[in-house]
Specification:
The protein is of the alpha+beta class. It contains six helices and four strands, in the order E-H-H-E-E-H-H-E-H-H. A four-stranded antiparallel beta sheet has the order 2-3-1-4, covered by helices on one side.
Length: about 180
């Protein structure tokens, strides 16, 4: 079996996908968006990082972060965000025996996907992917219509137009 090492570079930019444990019929992230924002804000106070782009969907999120120049520890940040968000929610989710034995909640998948951003083209591709994701999942017909997305900041800062990709039929091949 081939093993892959995480690419860790201090001060680098990374793309992440983080999922709830129960993705089916689960809208905890958007239902409790303020708790999630608070978890991010508190974590950023103790362990700074820049959120370059983000989208929060009902049961998963995607984001791009840039870490401080002398820091490559994104895992601690995710652990803190997940824990803070989990503590803010009432208990009641299904918990596996292994999680119960460790005193864990059953809200998040234990792991997350991370990708080291290699260059400007890679960065742009992932920003577009993040902003297009609510359309891809059929939540809205235009990216700008999803409220939990950094596309609004990108439009405000004139980095994207309000009708970005609105007239395009973007397929999955666009992202490959």
């Amino acid at each position: 079996m081939r093993r892959y090492l995480r690419h860790r570079v201090p001060g680098a930019c990374y793309f992440f996908t983080v999922n709830l444990a129960e993705r089916k019929n689960n809208s905890r992230l958007v239902t409790h968006i303020e708790a999630l924002r608070d978890a991010f804000a508190k974590t950023k106070q103790d362990h700074p990082f820049e959120i370059n782009a983000i989208v929060v969907l009902p049961e998963h999120l995607h984001c791009l972060w840039t870490l401080p120049p002398d820091d490559d520890d994104f895992s601690t940040r995710w652990s803190l965000i997940k824990a803070r968000f989990s503590r803010a929610l009432p208990a009641g989710e299904k918990i596996s025996k292994s999680r119960e034995a460790k005193g864990e909640r059953g809200i998040w998948q234990r792991r997350f996907y991370e990708h080291y951003i290699r260059d400007d083209a890679d960065y742009a591709k992932h920003v577009d992917y993040i902003h297009w994701n609510p359309v891809k999942h059929g939540l809205v017909s235009r990216a700008i219509d999803w409220p939990h997305s950094s596309i609004h900041r990108y439009v405000r800062e004139s980095l994207l137009s309000q009708d970005w990709a609105a007239d395009s039929a973007i397929s999955d091949e666009f992202w490959e």
